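Re: S-adenosylmethionine structure - here you go.
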Amino acid sequence: MIPRIAAGFARHLTSYDTAATAQAQIADRLAARIAPRIAPAARILELGHGTGFLTRQLARLAPDEIWLNDLVAPLPEMSWPAATKVQALPGDAAALRFPAGLDLIASASMLQWLADPAALLHRAAQALRPGGILAVSSFGPGNFPELAGLGLPPGAPAYRDAAGLCADLPAGMQVLDAWDESLPRAFPDARALMAHLRATGVNGLRAGHLTVPRLRALMRQMNRAGPTTLTYRPSYCIARRC
Ligand SMILES: C[S@@+](CC[C@H](N)C(=O)[O-])C[C@H]1O[C@@H](n2cnc3c(N)ncnc32)[C@H](O)[C@@H]1O
């Protein structure tokens, strides 16, 4: 599982920045609600930084220290405040040695790729100082309803809606904010929709489920149905360690 996920993202890192407009929007929305809760000179860990949509926003908090984790992505190319110490923590977040006493652990659009996201949330909570903030986004079970409506596999894994995300937090975490969204994306045709999925690192549609002729038949069906949309259903949870 991990090598397949790693290969999917590694192959499409260059196209991700342009294609992943929904993920960019999600990172912005999460960052907007993190910012008022974090004082300058914080100690921050980001899980699954990818090409840096959320990382760039975290840099604006002028952290003292930031640890950046991703399974495959190199550190994002960006500038940092001179006083910020940046440290890479590459590899599987599930196997990570967390720094202790953190002010903020943040992660956008990554949890759903893990085999056991709840276990990671528990470990993350333990790495926070009392009063520290955990801020995450994922995708709810209603993600990509258009694909499910055609009987297609979802293509990308989903995890929990906002209520479910919060329910997976360990005891001792106080939920400060939780919300779900619906972000539709329109495409000229089914081919463009599939190319979008691939460009964002999602290549699971055909993973053992669909033959090429069957996929082509489904794409023709999508084109006959008219304008092609893909609806992202992101979920968010922000909580404080008591
Ligand atoms: C959809 S991208 C999101 C990237 C970024 N956070 C954003 O908002 O655009 C998911 C990222 O999670 C990373 N990822 C997937 N599984 C992971 C794991 N087990 N440990 C660490 N990172 C992982 C991928 O390499 C990829 O960069």
